[in-house]
């Protein structure tokens, strides 16, 4: 056995071993990118190796495996157990082939073809393309050639001949013909883009087509919002216009300049026409001897004899036009004449054709293959030199291209061109751009038939400058974006700037608040009532503007809750996998917006709730089945907005919360006493999970935290002035509802007075203000209460809560000013000395030592410059 | 004797290329990835690189970009790939390849390009 | 509404937005023998275009807007 085959077999075994190992690793960790990449590389390399030999069965299966893994790597196909199984099957087959090659002296029996087809098909099924015929085995591929993926212009012939001829004239006169290929991003619809609209903006389109990027899936499975379109167009617009049009997505645009001759496509009725069999031979003979006048004359005669609607006539018209406009383009003329003989469309666009035109090089020095390779290399350097000049390694690339060009020239014996090449390289390196070398290439390299050239037009019109006009470069187009007169619709602004603006508006609100003081001073202190009134009028105006400004800046700070929601699919997947549970996550209302701070503050509580739900709520598939539920649990996270609040509901269809267990636990933990335990309703009991230090899990899992319960969620939500409530039905599921303000930047507070000090109370907690007659106060269980609207409301004196040594101050009618606030869904009356006005303030959290004081949510500056302490009744009572 | 550096992670492919190139009278050195290729190329000059794309540690694009960033003589590079995608060819050229060939490259085909790129007349 | 669904004909009017695509797809699947009328259509979002390319419905009337018509024909014919 030859050493190469031995090497192949031994390496193949290593690879197969590695592939199996990676597949196992992937099974345990399907999300691992490094494992996936390594797996892909192994299969890819093994496929490449097998292609060196005549093992089409092996290559076919490996190729399918590679394509499948590529799809998984790209996220087009999800990982599945099935996938591992099929790949393992396929690798077993390859292993079997390896064994057979070894024992069978380098050959594979013919009986494997069927299996190879079946396995490859089973792999491709997972990609979802079953109908696509497997590419020809690589071993059958023809000999080496560099690839030129020129665009296909399948239906150019559909354009009326007249239009094409006019276009051909224009293109020769200077209008470059550009082929545009626009491939929008697959997710672009979600970014609000409309690629069709964009494509329609392409100016001066003479031909267009819209094609699917991948074959269409069955209509019933079609994802309407996954963009699968590629737009092609042929245009005479200037490249600059196109760059301008696609300046935001240059990477989706490919522009290829086309030689005008591609328009020369005869059409018409292929049947009939005068019998003049020798025409082609005659014409070619005249072409070869340079008898252009004779050629034109026979062509014209021929045309006169033929009906104009014939394919032949159309071809002749083109030939005459090319003779007129491109008299030196022998290649085009020859191709047209030959196509008249064969009645097949001339193939203009593939550079391979162009390369054959180079055949004049062939001689003692060059074989046919050499000439083709020579042209290939030249073409490649042309493409390389046409790349953007922005890369840091440009000098190295230019040097290498020049070396390659020099070598080719030397091989072709054209040493006379070398000094100018050297000079061009020096100039290019000097100016750090490819242009001088490209100019040299244009002048020297294009099929140096010039030795026998009769006209300057000979300078190879067929040498398509198909250097892709590259649009990747940032430098090149960054400037254009900035200069652009059409401003972008979205601005990216540094968060600090917004915060700064926010702060300024806060100050403005505060400053504005000083005007009423000023007005009352004008009245009371200086006795100028008129001025006082005017100030008040002005205040109303400034107040309105300030409010609108606040509103506007709030809008800027709004962001969708999807910012938080987007992490849940992964979290739920990973967590449920760890817990061996099956969970379907449903996200709704992701576009609901709230202030950035609110959305950010939402993240931790939500994660906690979701984990709790997965951990304690949703049961394992076995338990669920036993309970008559579908094995997969459902977890829904829904955001909605109502008035000035955002509601987030997290619901599951898990086992719910058992109020009796909660009661018992709460009692055991000393959170409630025995009598409370008896008295509590189920709903109240369920809400005990929010009590500090409560955790229901029998065993503390490593997921929902160690002993950290729902009380953390509650305090986090309350920190941003939100509330949380919970409903649960045993065996059916749990619903947790968070209610949050849309924004937290400006707080409306009521100012109350107690013992000659003033305090703020957030208005969203205030239910009402009442004056309670002392006679209406009852003492129940040593606590003072009163009845308001048929409800017993406990009364607490603010002085007492703040440890102020003073009695509440009653008015003349012996009534106590009572602020009724909502604390954890309960109403509590806070007795103060008096109520004052409400104001908008920017709440600043307390810092330093006083930050540790309970009972306050922050402080704020008032219009008169004094500091207002804002109470937090939740912590206070 | 002209020296060629073959960069490929697959031993089979390296051996395949070595066989072809040595038979044609070239001196061949091998590297199993871009990093090793960098080390070798910076140590001794080569007249040509034959480079695979997909390799661990540093792939073919990375190797070419790195080597083209060096202030050394810049021999031509042949990039050999199984991908017929024009995007890959484009990337290869951008990284610093001078011609892009599709695997499997038949010995004759490969040698034709190499002879031209090394400025050797056909014998 | 930019698409009016009649018994067997979907009428495209003015500019048809992306949000119509899903409904269009459903309708085309439910009414496989239906026809589309673009006479008064000025533009349709690419999502709608690709739905039609995938389902290949019968076009009863092409748009009056010549440029739109050319684009549509290149995609749907």
UniProtKB/TrEMBL annotation, chain A:
It comes from the Bacteria. One of its GO terms (biological process) is chemotaxis. It catalyses: ATP + protein L-histidine = ADP + protein N-phospho-L-histidine. It is an enzyme of class 2 (transferase). Pfam families: CheW (PF01584), H-kinase_dim (PF02895), HATPase_c (PF02518), Hpt (PF01627). Residues 542-744 form the Histidine kinase domain. The modification Phosphohistidine is found at residue 44. SUPFAM superfamilies: ATPase domain of HSP90 chaperone/DNA topoisomerase II/histidine kinase (SSF55874), CheW-like (SSF50341), Histidine-containing phosphotransfer domain, HPT domain (SSF47226), Homodimeric domain of signal transducing histidine kinase (SSF47384). Its EC number is 2.7.13.3. GO terms for molecular function: phosphorelay sensor kinase activity. Residues 1-101 form the HPt domain. Residues 746-877 form the CheW-like domain. One of its GO terms (cellular component) is cytoplasm. Keywords: Kinase, Phosphoprotein, Transferase, Two-component regulatory system. PANTHER family: CHEMOTAXIS PROTEIN CHEA (PTHR43395:SF1), SENSOR HISTIDINE KINASE CHEA (PTHR43395). Involved in the transmission of sensory signals from the chemoreceptors to the flagellar motors. CheA is autophosphorylated; it can transfer its phosphate group to either CheB or CheY. This is Chemotaxis protein CheA. It comes from Methylobacter tundripaludum (strain ATCC BAA-1195 / DSM 17260 / SV96).
From TrEMBL, chain B:
The keyword Lyase does not apply. This is Response regulator receiver protein. Pfam families: Response_reg. The modification 4-aspartylphosphate is found at residue 52. SUPFAM superfamilies: CheY-like. GO terms for biological process: phosphorelay signal transduction system. Keywords: Phosphoprotein. The keyword Transmembrane helix does not apply. It comes from Methylobacter tundripaludum (strain ATCC BAA-1195 / DSM 17260 / SV96). Residues 3-118 form the Response regulatory domain.
TrEMBL record, chain C:
It comes from the Bacteria. This is Uncharacterized protein. The lineage of its organism: Bacteria, Pseudomonadati, Pseudomonadota, Gammaproteobacteria, Methylococcales.
């Amino acid at each position: 056995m030859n050493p190469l085959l031995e090497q192949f077999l031994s390496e193949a075994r290593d690879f197969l071993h590695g592939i199996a190992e990676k597949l196992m690793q992937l099974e345990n960790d399907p999300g691992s990118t490094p494992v996936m990449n390594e797996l892909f590389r192994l299969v890819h390399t093994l496929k490449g190796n097998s292609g060196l030999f005549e093992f089409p069965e092996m290559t076919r299966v490996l190729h399918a495996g590679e394509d499948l893994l590529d799809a998984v790597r790209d996220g087009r196909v999800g990982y599945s157990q099935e996938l591992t199984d099929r790949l393992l099957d396929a690798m077993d087959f390859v292993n079997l082939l390896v064994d057979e090659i070894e024992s069978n002296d380098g050959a594979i029996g013919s009986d494997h073809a069927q299996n190879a087809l079946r396995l490859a098909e089973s792999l491709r099924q997972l990609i979802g393309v079953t109908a696509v015929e497997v590419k020809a085995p690589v071993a059958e591929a023809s000999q080496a050639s560099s690839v030129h993926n020129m665009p296909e212009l399948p239906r150019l012939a559909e354009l009326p001949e007249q239009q094409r001829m006019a276009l051909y004239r224009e293109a020769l006169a200077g209008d470059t013909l550009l082929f545009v290929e626009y491939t929008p991003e697959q997710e672009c619809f979600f970014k609000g883009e409309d690629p069709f609209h964009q494509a329609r903006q392409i100016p001066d389109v003479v031909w267009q087509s819209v094609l699917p990027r991948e074959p269409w899936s069955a209509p019933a499975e079609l994802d309407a919002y996954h963009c699968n379109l590629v737009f092609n167009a042929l245009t005479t617009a200037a490249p600059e216009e196109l760059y301008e049009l696609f300046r935001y997505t240059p990477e989706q645009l490919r522009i290829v300049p086309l030689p005008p001759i591609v328009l020369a496509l005869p059409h018409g009725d292929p049947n009939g026409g005068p019998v003049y069999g020798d025409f082609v031979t005659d014409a070619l003979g005249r072409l070869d001897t340079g008898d252009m006048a004779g050629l034109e004359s026979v062509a014209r005669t021929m045309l006169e004899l033929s009906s104009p609607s014939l394919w032949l006539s159309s071809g002749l018209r083109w030939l005459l036009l090319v003779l007129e406009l491109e008299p030196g383009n022998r290649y085009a003329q020859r191709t047209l004449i030959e196509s008249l003989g064969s009645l097949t469309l001339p193939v203009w666009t593939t550079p391979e054709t162009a390369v054959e035109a180079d055949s004049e090089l062939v001689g003692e020095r060059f074989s046919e293959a050499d000439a083709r390779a020579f042209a290939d290399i030249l073409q490649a350097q042309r493409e390389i030199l046409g790349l953007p000049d922005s890369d840091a390694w440009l000098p190295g690339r230019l040097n290498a291209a020049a070396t390659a060009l020099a070598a080719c020239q030397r091989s072709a014996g054209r040493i006379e061109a070398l000094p100018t090449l050297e000079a061009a390289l020096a100039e290019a390196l000097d100016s750090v751009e490819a242009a001088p070398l490209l100019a040299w290439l244009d002048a020297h390299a294009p099929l140096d038939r010039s030795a026998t050239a009769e006209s300057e037009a000979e300078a190879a019109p067929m040498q398509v400058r198909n250097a892709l006009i590259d649009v990747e470069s940032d430098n090149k187009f960054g400037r254009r974006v900035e200069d652009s007169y059409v401003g972008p619709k979205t601005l990216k602004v540094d968060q600090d700037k917004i915060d700064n603006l926010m702060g300024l508006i806060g100050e403005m609100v505060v400053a504005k608040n000083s005007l009423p003081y000023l007005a009352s001073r004008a009245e009371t202190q200086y006795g100028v009532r008129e001025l006082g009134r005017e100030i008040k009028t002005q205040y109303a105006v400034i107040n309105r503007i300030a409010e609108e400004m606040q509103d506007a800046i709030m809008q800027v700070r709004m962001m969708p809750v999807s910012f938080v929601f987007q992490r849940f699919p992964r979290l739920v997947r990973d967590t449920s996998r760890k817990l061996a549970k099956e969970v379907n996550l449903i996200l709704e209302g992701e576009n609901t917006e709230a202030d950035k701070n609110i959305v950010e503050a939402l993240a931790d509580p939500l994660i906690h709730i979701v984990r709790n739900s997965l951990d304690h709520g949703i049961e394992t598939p076995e338990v669920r089945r036993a309970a008559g539920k579908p094995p997969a649990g459902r977890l829904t996270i829904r955001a909605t907005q109502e008035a000035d609040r955002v509601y987030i509901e997290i619901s599951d269809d898990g086992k719910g919360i058992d109020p009796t267990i909660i009661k018992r636990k709460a009692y055991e933990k000393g959170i409630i006493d025995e009598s409370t335990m008896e008295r509590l309703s189920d709903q109240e009991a369920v809400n005990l999970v929010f009590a500090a230090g409560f955790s229901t899990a029998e065993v503390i899992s490593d997921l929902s935290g160690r002993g950290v319960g729902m009380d953390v969620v509650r305090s986090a939500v309350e920190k941003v002035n939100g509330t949380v409530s919970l409903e649960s039905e045993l065996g059916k599921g749990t619903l947790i509802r968070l209610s949050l303000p849309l924004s937290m930047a400006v707080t409306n507070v009521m100012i109350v007075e107690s013992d000659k000090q003033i305090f703020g109370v957030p208005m969203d907690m205030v239910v009402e203000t009442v004056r309670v007659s002392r006679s209406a106060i009852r003492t129940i269980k040593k606590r003072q209460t009163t009845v308001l609207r048929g409800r017993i409301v406990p009364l607490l004196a603010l002085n007492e809560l703040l440890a102020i040594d003073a009695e509440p101050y009653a008015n003349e009618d012996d009534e106590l000013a009572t602020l009724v606030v909502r604390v954890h869904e309960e109403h509590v009356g806070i007795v103060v000395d008096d109520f004052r006005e409400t104001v908008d303030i920017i709440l600043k959290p307390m810092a330093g030592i006083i930050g540790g004081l309970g009972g306050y949510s922050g402080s704020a500056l008032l219009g008169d410059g004094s500091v207002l302490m804002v109470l937090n009744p939740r912590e206070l009572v | 004797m002209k020296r060629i550096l073959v960069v490929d992670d697959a031993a089979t492919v390296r051996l395949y290329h070595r066989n072809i190139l040595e038979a044609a009278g070239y001196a061949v050195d091998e590297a199993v990835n871009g990093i090793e290729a960098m080390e070798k190329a910076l140590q001794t000059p080569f007249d040509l690189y034959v480079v695979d794309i997909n390799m661990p540690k540093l792939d073919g694009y990375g190797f070419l970009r790195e080597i083209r960033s060096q202030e050394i003589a810049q021999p031509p590079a042949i990039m050999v790939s199984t991908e017929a995608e024009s995007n890959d060819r484009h990337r290869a050229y951008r990284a610093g390849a001078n011609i892009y060939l599709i695997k499997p490259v038949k010995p004759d085909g490969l040698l034709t390009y190499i002879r031209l790129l090394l400025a050797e007349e056909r014998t | 509404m930019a698409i009016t669904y009649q018994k067997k004909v979907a009428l495209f009017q003015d500019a048809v937005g992306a949000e119509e695509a899903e409904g269009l797809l459903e309708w085309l699947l439910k009414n496989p023998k239906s026809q589309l009328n673009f006479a008064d259509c000025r533009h349709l979002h690419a999502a709608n275009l690709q739905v039609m390319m995938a389902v290949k419905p019968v076009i009863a009337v092409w748009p009056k807007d010549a440029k739109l018509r050319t684009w549509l024909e290149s995609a749907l014919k």
